[in-house]
Amino acid sequence: MKKKNTLIAATKGKTTSFSETIKTEVVCPNDTNPMGILQGGRLVQWMDIAAAVCAQTHADGICVTASIDTVRFFHSAKVGDILTIKAKITRAFNTSMEIMVEASVRDVFGNKPQALCLAYFTFVAIDSKAKKRSVPPIALVSEEDKRNFELAGLRKEKNI
């Protein structure tokens, strides 16, 4: 019963597509290790920026990174590769939001993109005095939205 009420409440808010953010980067030599492979830390930095834009768009104000969870690297990227980083809110809690960030890589010749990395970021909305403030709920319009919403709740329960 609680789940049903949660889903109903979550239909009154901003859609996930409202704040979805897409960032593109080209891997340059200063982004790589001595082997010419993209450094994981640089990728996570770019993902954090995309997630911040997504969170701040949803919350209509400043948000700060609270945690990064379940960072998974699937592939590598090298100098000249093109990255696409997509950030999408999965759930808004009271003052925090979970943002799913997916990165893909393709070479400059237009070959099919490959999954590069997946991570879940938690952001907290703050006011002008750096105090936590509430965020609007998300409207669940698709089955994917509903699935991501439920899974975000499970991840939060697991990490508390």
Helix content: 25-40%
Q: Strands of the largest sheet, in order across it?
A: 2-4-5-6-3
User: At the third CATH level, what is the topology name?
Assistant: Thiol Ester Dehydrase, Chain A
Q: Structural class, from helix and strand content?
A: alpha+beta
| Uncertain ranges | 1-10
What labels describe this entry?
160 residues; alpha+beta; Thiol Ester Dehydrase, Chain A
What is the structure about, briefly put?
It is built from four helices and seven strands; from the N terminus they run αβαβαβββββα.
Account of the protein in words:
- The protein has 160 residues and is α+β, with helices and mostly antiparallel strands.
- It has a single domain (2-159), classed as Hotdog Thioesterase (Thiol Ester Dehydrase, Chain A, Roll), CATH 3.10.129.10.
- Helices cover 31% and strands 34% of the residues.
- It contains four helices and seven strands; from the N terminus they run αβαβαβββββα.
- A five-stranded antiparallel beta sheet has the order 2-4-5-6-3. The chain has a two-stranded parallel ribbon with strand order 1-7.
- The longest helix is centred in the first third of the chain and has 20 residues, at 40-59.
- The radius of gyration is 17 Å and the shape is globular.
